Amino acid sequence: MESIKMLIEKFKDGSIKEMWEEIKWMFSYGKNYKKEIVFYTILGVFSTVMSLISSVASKELINIVTGIQTNRALEMAVLMVSMSLFSLLFNQAMSRITLKINIRIQNEIQADIFDKIIEVNWLDLSRYHGGDLLNRFSSDVGTVANSAIGWVPNLIINFFSFIATLCLILYYDPTMLFLTLANMPIMLLSSKVMMSRLRKYDMKVKEMNSEMMAFETETFSNIDSIKSFSLVHLFSDRLKGFQKRFKDVSLEYNWFSIKYNTIISLLGMVVSFSFYGWAVYRLWSGAINYGEMTLFLQQSGRLSSTFSALVSIIPSTISATISAKRLMEIIFLPKEPLDIKTSEYLDRIQDKGFSLELEDVYFSYIQNKNVLVSSDLKANPGEIVALVGPSGEGKTTMIRLFLGLITPNQGNAYLIDYQGKKYHLDASTRSLFAYVPQGNTIFSGTIAENLRMVKEDASDEEIIKALKSACAYEFVSRLEGGINAKIGARGQGLSEGQCQRIAIARALLREAPILLLDEATSALDVSTERKVLNNIMINHPNKTCIVTTHRPSVLNMCQRVYRVMDTKLTVLSEEESAKMAMDF
Ligand SMILES: Nc1ncnc2c1ncn2[C@@H]1O[C@H](COP(=O)(O)OP(=O)(O)O)[C@@H](O)[C@H]1O
Ligand SMILES: [Mg+2]
User: Fold this and answer.
1) Residue whose CA is closest, atom 7 of ligand 1?
2) I want to staple 497 with a disulfide (CB 3.0 to 4.6 A). Which of 309, 448, 523, 581 is the partner?
3) Lowest mean pLDDT, pick from 69-83, 114-128, 183-197, 341-355
4) CATH topology of domain 12-331
5) How many A from CA of 397 to the centre of ligand 1?
6) What span, in angstroms and rounded, lies between the C-alpha atoms of 450 and 441?
7) In the prediction, which pLDDT does 182 show?
């Protein structure tokens, strides 16, 4: 009694409950395919029934041949062959249905996860490596999709097959019952014991895969640095290190699987041999005839194969639940608050311009490590406000506050409309911003495609106008194909300054009321930088523009200059900014 209680407790605790949640989540995707899944299951059940009928027919045929029965020989032969053929046909139909549903579910999960990743809180998501996300997005989704349909129908079909086979055997010889009862508990016990170990190994292998993918993506996107610092050996050693760890983990998992499979197969053999032995004894003692003997032989084989199919559902389900766990971890990260109504209203009053305000803002990424303390700032339509200061002091962090990617720990970050109404900066206010981030943000494709990303229906003229404003049209028009010239990933084929100007043109095409340039002009020469800022203010007089820059020569074009240093934000007077200009 005690041990049963303990077993129940174990089922209730961690891993089973966790698995149950994961399974529920997976099946929420299978929901839309109920009809197909039911059809699939019915086909599987039919296929089993047909092959059972075929076996009975073959038994009859043997009895006819051995003279126990004499009539219906042809009938039985036809029945046997046709049932086998039907069973074959059904199996092929099932494989086609499986593929169809699999692809559809995979696409659905992938699309869903893609959208959800975008909705997730930026700071939480930024703790995951891109390669890790990529790995989850591709291989874990595949595993879950495979399982969302396959698991339950296969369990039902195999279980049905197992029970039907047993019934058939028992029908012809009820004495087989005691054998079955003797074997059952061994089968059931074997699986629970292995479960948590299997989960642990599966998790390890998947984490390893993620790490490997992270390493690969990073390596391939930094080929230039690796080559120039002659780091090829270092990186190839790292790769070998990863490969070795991967090999070790895989072999360890494999060793465990081998032990697990051996035990299961042995159990299967015990089941089938005990049926076989008993059948031989019964034949010898005259209790059954030759036809029944062949039936038992066939069915004991089927019994052990459905048994191992049933048992093999366990590791594949475990693998799927681990993948589900890894996806759920991302999907259930906190969402960004989004107020669609506000967002739509703000979009409608775009043209009137907006101010930005920080009011006594405190922010830290890590507890007790403030990046900003008691900071105030104001930026109005028609102004260029500059953020200057040494690297690593919080300029990009402020840009993230404006974009509502992060929120102040204390104090307020506001958007203010033309009537003076204040809105907290978050996902709802984000569509008002055009943002040129630090670093390269050009995608592979043509220049026009890169720009149209932010405004699908932009005409060529609009694109050219934006490129002109960003001082980019001069070099673009000289490229073969002009705005339709193809560029590689991350702007391959263009210089850094050229990429920056295309990124600025893209931001301008968006025609958002607020423009954020985060060191977006760092690779431009001084006169081009001044020209770009000048164009922006002339062509878009109502824009609120915030730039972070290291270039003193543009500070005098800005209405206000804020210095970000030692967690403090201070407005510089004209003399100070002139002096600061000298410091850089
Ligand atoms: N995602 C992050 N998680 C934790 N700390 C961060 C993160 N991003 C930036 N920081 C820290 O915040 C500080 C300010 O960074 P940042 O705003 O990027 O500086 P700047 O743009 O002025 O060079 C730095 O000390 C940096 O280490
Ligand atoms: Mg920065």
Assistant:
1) 365
2) 523
3) 183-197
4) ABC transporter transmembrane region fold (1.20.1560)
5) 6
6) 10
7) 66
